[in-house]
């Protein structure tokens, strides 16, 4: 009976001992085995893996893509403008053995290299490149970081510049420059429109000079457009050609042409052939009672 209990205890201890040497590697991980401190070339795949007791030690390496924000870095561009730039980097482990052996902490190492590369990119670039040519700067910074990362078994997937912070004075200067550029374009467009309009007006004037009736049609069209606004007053210009036509069509009376349209009253002659004298009425309100021709013949004086 005692021997049976001892056998059961030995089996239980053996199971526990084997359980301590079993490891589970997740799907997104790879296992690197160190046997007596020496790395093994074979990488343990995801699943259940067995280790030799006392001799083996398993280190798991994450193979997922890691997103690391790069802290904002202050720098001076090549055209002497102070800026503050931050970025983000995406990377993953390509060789788990080298990532576990060749570098102590590959995450921290990638972060430091990214910061120095970002400062270097700021110093080599102009402000216009930082604002408009970010794709080229991202590729350049990716190459700078990827060069040392390959020796650590790390692959740089992507590097993106997130934001570029400019001083307030530089922002005001850029806004004034953009406003001046927009004003210049607006003036050019306006001048171009005036040039095209003048050319079309010149062509229209040539057509109207060849066909006088076109001017009258244009006048009537303008009247119609003005009348469509429901205005109470309409100014209608009268063509001079019509007045001349009416003048030529009107018949002239016989005799003295000066008598046309004028009625003159001749005073009746006296029996002895003398011309009667017509008394000129005095000017109303004239204290002197002078006749009209007498007052009219004197110079005008303003009473002081």
Short note summarizing the structure:
It is built from 9 helices and 8 strands. It has 304 residues and is an alpha+beta fold. Among the domains are: 7-61, no CATH class; 66-166, Tetrahydropterin Synthase, Chain A, CATH 3.30.479.30; 174-200.
Shape: rod-shaped
Structural class: alpha+beta
Q: Regions with pLDDT < 50 over 5+ consecutive residues?
A: 257-263, 289-304
Could you tell me the radius of gyration in angstroms? 54 Å
- Report the portion of residues in β strands: 15-25%
Explain this structure.
By secondary structure, this protein is of the alpha+beta class. Among the domains are: 7-61, no CATH class; 66-166, 2-Layer Sandwich (Tetrahydropterin Synthase, Chain A); 174-200. 46% of the residues lie in helices and 21% in strands. It is built from nine helices and eight strands. The protein has helices at residues 2-19, 96-101, 106-124, 127-132, 134-149, 168-210, 212-227, 240-249, 292-297; strands spanning 22-25, 29-35, 38-44, 47-50, 56-62, 66-76, 82-93, 154-165. The strands form three sheets. Strands 3-2-5 form a three-stranded antiparallel β-sheet. Residues 257-263 and 289-304 have low confidence and may be disordered.
């Amino acid at each position: 009976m005692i021997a049976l209990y001892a056998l059961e205890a030995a089996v239980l201890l053996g199971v526990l001992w084997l359980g301590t040497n079993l490891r589970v590697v997740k799907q997104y991980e790879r296992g690197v085995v160190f046997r007596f401190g020496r790395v093994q070339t074979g990488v343990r795949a995801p699943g259940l893996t067995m280790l030799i007791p006392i001799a083996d030690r398993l280190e798991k390496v994450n193979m997922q893509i890691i997103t690391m924000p790069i802290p904002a870095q202050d720098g001076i561009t090549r055209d002497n403008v102070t800026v503050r730039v931050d970025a983000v980097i995406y990377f993953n482990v390509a060789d788990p053995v080298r990532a576990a052996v060749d570098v102590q902490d590959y995450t921290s190492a990638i972060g430091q290299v990214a910061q120095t590369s970002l400062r270097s990119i700021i110093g080599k670039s102009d402000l216009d490149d930082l604002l408009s040519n970010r794709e080229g700067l991202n590729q350049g910074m990716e190459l700078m970081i990827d060069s040392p990362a390959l020796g650590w078994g790390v692959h740089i997937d992507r590097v993106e510049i997130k934001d570029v912070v400019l001083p307030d004075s530089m922002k005001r200067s850029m806004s004034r420059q953009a406003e001046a550029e927009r004003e210049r374009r607006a003036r050019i467009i306006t001048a171009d429109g005036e040039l095209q309009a003048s050319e079309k007006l010149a062509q229209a004037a040539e057509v109207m000079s060849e066909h006088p009736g076109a001017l009258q049609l244009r006048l009537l069209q303008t009247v119609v457009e003005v009348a469509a606004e429901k205005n109470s007053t309409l100014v209608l210009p009268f063509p001079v050609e019509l007045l001349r036509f009416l003048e030529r069509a009107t018949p002239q009376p016989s005799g003295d042409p000066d008598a046309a349209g004028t009625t003159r009253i001749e005073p009746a002659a006296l029996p002895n052939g003398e011309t009667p004298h017509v008394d000129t009425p005095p000017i109303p309100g004239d204290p002197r009672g002078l006749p009209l021709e007498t007052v009219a013949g004197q110079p005008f004086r303003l009473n002081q």
